[in-house]
Amino acid sequence: MNRKQRKAVAKLQQKPNVMTPEKAFAAALEAHQAGRIAEAETLYRQVLAVAPQHAPSNSNLAVILRQQGRAEEAIVHYRKALETKPHEAGTCYNLGIALRELGRFEEAAACYRQALRNDPSYVNAYTNLGDVLKSLGRLPEAIAVLKEGLARDPGHIQGNFNMAVCLKDEGHNAPAQEHFQRALSADPTFFPARLGRCIASLPIIYADEEEIRRCRAAYAADLADMVATVRLESPAAVMRASDAVGLLQPFYLSYQGACDRDLQKLYGALIHRLMSARYPAWAGRPPMPPIGADGKIRVGILSGYFRHHSNWKIPIRGWLENLDRSRFQMFGYHTDRMRDDQTTIAESLCHRFVQGPLAVEHWAQTIRADNLHVLLIPEIGMDPTTVKLASLWLAPVQINSWGHPETSGSPTLDYYLSSDLMEPPDGDQHYSEKLIRLPNLSIHYTPVPPPPCPLTRADIGVRDDAIVYWCCQSLFKYLPRHDFIFARIAGEVPNSQFVFIRYGKGQQVNTVFENRLRAAFAAQGVPYEGRCVFLPPMDYARFNAATRLADVFLDSLGWSGCNTTLEALAHNIPVLTLPGTLMRGRHSYAILMQIGLTETIARDEEDYIAIAARLAREPEWRARLAAFIAANRQRAYFDTACVRGLEQALEQMVCAPATTMNTPSP
Question: What is the pTM of this model?
Answer without folding.
Answer: 0.90
